[in-house]
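Section 3.1: Structural characterization of target chains.
Under the original work plan, the team committed to producing a structural model for every single-chain target entering the pipeline before any wet-lab resources were allocated. The record below documents one such target. The sequence was received from the expression subgroup and is listed exactly as submitted; it comprises 129 residues.
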Amino acid sequence: MAIALAFGLTSLRYPTGTFSRAGPGLFPLSVSCFLFLIVLFTVVRARFVERVPLDFKLKNIAIILASLGGFAVISEHLNMIVGIVFMVFCASFAGTAKYSVMRNLKISAGLIAVALAFQKLLGFNLPLY
């Protein structure tokens, strides 16, 4: 909440404009408002849900960090599609569900479709292939 408030209040120093002619302060203000609402709902929900102890598993944290690092290196040197597939297959070792190659392929296909949409529809410069 503090981060959302800090960015939201700071963005008020810039002209926000209107939605049809956005000023430099409109985007950070809208993002911080959405973030504040998400955190507010999370805090309210936390008051009504039973507490669960938080258990850090350093092995799982290391697996996730390795999958992200591998994604970055593979995307840089080969292409992003191979990086996405590596990241999904590597990160799934950190989960508690039974390892499923088919599920990983479906997740990879979905992420590749999103990346292709960003590249083709939004014009992002992504090294997909």
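The chain has five helices and no strands.
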